[in-house]
Amino acid sequence: MRFVPRSLFSRLVLVLLTVLVVAQLVGFAIHMHERGELLSQASGMQAAQRIADIVKLLDTLGPAERRRIVQVFSAPPVTISLDQPAPAAGRQDADAAARAALFDAMLRRFLGDGRPVAVTVAEAPAVPFKPAARQGMKGPGMHGDWTPPWAAMHGASLPGLSFVAQVRLQDGALVTFDARQSAQTVSWPYRLLLSLAVLLAAVVAVSLVAVRWATRPLNALADAADELGRNINRPPLVETGPIEVARAARAFNTMQARLAGYIRDRTRVLAAMSHDLKTPVTRLRLRAELLEDPQVRAKFTKDLDEMESMVGATLDFLRGQESGEAVNPVDIMALLESLQADLAEMGGAVTIAGSAKAPYPGRPQALKRCLANLLENAVKYGKSARMFVDDDADCLEIRIQDEGPGIPQAELEKVFEPFYRVENSRSRETGGTGLGLTIAKSIAEAHGGRLGLRNRAEGGLEARLTLPRSARTSG
Description:
Radius of gyration: 48 Å
Mean pLDDT: 76
Number of domains: 3
Shape: rod-shaped
Number of helices: 9
Order of helices and strands: HHEHEEEEEHHHEHEEHEEHEE
Strand content: 15-25%
Low-confidence stretches: 129-158, 424-428
Largest sheet: 5 strands, mixed
């Protein structure tokens, strides 16, 4: 099955071409068979007409003149003999018997006098002709010792069918005619082959256009499904075309509308809950200030700070999911340098290597939040951060490396899940909420890119952000 094309377009074209080629071959075979039969019948009719004419001429001649005339007329494709005995009755196959009966009927019709006729058919192999020495017109047999004038032109007999007809003249003499139908009578019909080739090329061209036209809605549906994962609010599909295509587009648009509505409802509920949590947190903070025991007050304050941080991160995450920020050219180097300066003010060591060749078309605030989360994680858990920028015509890649303890290999993908924290190196004690990497990955995917983590062999963690320049960014 590895030779079967994977795309629907290629498979439909292959099926159409296979059926067309098979139909052409079958039609060509039938045509060649029918053509061979017609040519064979036409050739047999000519030979029968010639034999009948010669028989009628020989009836009017005497024995001596008859032999001289036979030597003159005995030339391929019809040779004549006056001395050949009647053949013994033999068994012929069905095809040879049918051909013999047809030739017999044609010969009797041209003779028209009901005289005895015997016809046999046999395969005639190619036999080279050896001319004899010129000694006049003496000698018995089909050719005697005379070299007929057709010898120089027909040096050898060609393979084909041999129709042997024996006819009784009016005086009782037996004349044997050997009418050969050469295999060359059924030659290749080059004009027909050229016509079939032109027809095949035209049908192939039309098939390519027709199949491409038929599969285009499926490609549009696949592109829409792929883009739906990055932008739930993408424009709906056009519900036109054949009934099946329009129905599929309508079902897709309905599904998109339901998903968008579900996400909006969920986001509003979670945002309302997160916002409403701020009020009791604020009241608890005020009441905690009234506690007289400093240790108890410190524990309450710490828990409230963590709750407030989680609520704020949740709101940031939900705002990122619902962002309607427009796409604009972003100066990546200026953005990285501003983040470097912000972290330097807080004591974080950040270095930059490489450069971006051109502005990147993206959502500026979203990209800033994504890169800020990655850099803050690197500085917080790895003490420092090194950024490497690689840019080409296909994609922009930013690698952020730290000197921290890294992440267990089994948890490199889990850290992208909302509110997931690694217990040892990235626990709640360090102040993380478990949404920073989730937000960063969501922003990367919204730009058609990807975000991955790996532990470096020399120690530390590397975050690799890849942003394709050709992808469309969801709004």
